[in-house]
Amino acid sequence: MSEALAAFVRTHLRTEPVPFVPGLTLFQAEEPIGLWELTEGEYHSDQPPPFWAFAWAGGQGLARHLLDHPAEVAGRSVLDLASGSGLTAIAALRAGAAHVRAVEIDPTAAAAIALNADTNGVRLDVTVADVLAQGVAELGGASLVLAGDVFYSKEMAARMLTFLRRAARDGADVLVGDPGRAYFPGEYFTAVASYEVPVRYELESTLIRTVTVWRINPRGAARKPSAG
Which CA distances in Å does 89 have to 92, 109, 148, 160? Predict the structure, then answer.
């Protein structure tokens, strides 16, 4: 972990509990605009927006599902894609996962994930790489793939779906948490559970999001999604 990036996270974020996931605490931004400006300016002009600074709805729902249903993850090797703050990865470890690897493309996110893991008393591996481009060889033996709130753009949704479908065909179980994002490809998934998740108004323009936890259908659009 870069000490400079860790210092940036400590300076500009503060530890706060995650509203829908009792017992978990993350470094979170007090408000988004100022942090957006910092990361888009001289400090990190080549990096994406600081998704790692917030507990997004889909990640909260998926994390809560793992903690409420530890059999989903207990004893398994887990890959958490586009991990952001590391919330879902940390919840997987708390629920009994044997090993978790969190993947991100942003080095600052990697620093935030490491700090959040330490804050919550768990140990995980962090990879900074575009594994979606590298293909399912990057599964690294994981039997469960997690993705929280990843279908927020058309390009990201297409790349993520390709990776997740290949992972499922290779035998991995795939769970996704999604709050009804516009590009979620629901025809490829079956609903597992649904949660009413409190969210920040300045991020979502609402105070509650309905998050559905979905399991991918390995052979494609074989079943109509059912209520959770």
Answer: 5, 13, 10, 17
Q: Which helix (H) or strand (E) holds 73?
A: none
Q: How far apart are CA 120 and CA 25, in angstroms?
A: 7
The tens digit of pLDDT for each residue in 181-227 reads 999 999 999 999 999 999 988 888 899 999 999 999 877 654 443 44
- Give the number of other CB atoms < 10 A from CB of residue 224: 9
Per the listing, tokens 């409190």 go with: 198
Question: Which neighbouring-strand residues pair with 136?
Answer: none
Residues 170, 207: Cα–Cα separation, whole Å: 38
3-state secondary structure of 135: coil
**Could you tell me the residue ranges of all domains in the chain?**
3-216
111-132 burial by CB neighbour count: b if 16+ within 10 A, else e? Answer: bbbbbbbeebebebebbbeebb
CATH of segment(s) 3-216: 3.40.50.150
The tokens for 66 are 């793992």
| pLDDT tens track for 102-119 | 999 999 999 999 999 999
SS3 23: coil
Predicted local confidence at residue 49, as pLDDT: 65
- Integer Cα distance of 90 and 153 in angstroms: 25
Residues of the chain falling short of pLDDT 70: 1, 31-49, 136-137, 220-228
